[in-house]
Amino acid sequence: MESLIAIGYLLGLTTILAGVLAVASQKLKVYEDPRIDVVNDMMPGTNCGSCGLPGCRAFAENVIAGNIQPSGCPVGGAATAQLVADFLGVEAGEAEPMVARLRCAGGSNVAIQMAEYQGQPTCRAAASVAGGTKGCRYGCLGFGDCDVACTFDAITMSETGLPIVDPVKCTSCGDCVRACPKDLFEIVPMKQKLFVQCKSVLEGDGMLDFCKVACTACGRCVADAPQGLLKMEHNLPVLNEELLSLQDSNAIKRCPTGAITWIEGQQFKSLMNRPKDVVSKS
Fold first, then answer.
1. Measuring CA to CA, which residue among 200, 196, 210 is closest to residue 259?
2. pLDDT for 111-138, tens place per residue?
3. Run of H or E including 146
4. What digits encode the pLDDT tens for the residues 191-218?
5. How far is CA 142 from the centre of its chain?
6. Is 215:260 a contact under the CB 8 Å cutoff?
7. pTM for this one?
């Protein structure tokens, strides 16, 4: 008899708790717009974070909330933006085309190796050994971590061991930025024509013993550029992005090494003849 009473108490308590949980689930239920799933399915699904949000679902939530425009996804491009806009009945918006650029021109033809590296053939592994074996401690190590990381096959390695970015394929997702242990990639506006292909902060011609195309911090480009467009910071010319409309190629004309370039179409151009060969130091 006592056991039946105990069982009855347990059944009653279970019923009461189940009821409480059912009421609580309804009271505390968080409404989620069903359109989020639809928009999320329209997204590329890379969850790369190039939109500035944790992933595609977060992007979908913010688009529906009106915090950002559909064009805010650089990976999806104009087609995806229009698809989302048509579904939501909003304007797709216009996004500034962006592209990844490499802050190094020091390939094997112009930059020396101080030693031979034998180990795992990745930039990150090589960089962990005293920063790598390249004479310039700021330069690209050339093992192609960025190429491997690029989801969109927009990077290929040149014969001189430098990554080449295809602007047509590049979605500015930032995979290469995260993969490079030397922090040499930057995501910049496609309309930016002036670009400094060097990240060395050393000053003077002594740097040329290690890389013939290094910036020597001479400041000629700053003097020749439209006023305010360039300034020297940490021995490197820095572009004022708010004055991109003032860009012209005069800034590169007197650069003694070709460290600052002018981009025409997909090509970096310098108004000087870069040295073809460098004698390696033993």
1. 196
2. 999 988 999 999 999 999 989 999 999 9
3. helix 145-149
4. 999 999 999 999 899 989 999 999 999 9
5. 18
6. yes
7. 0.77
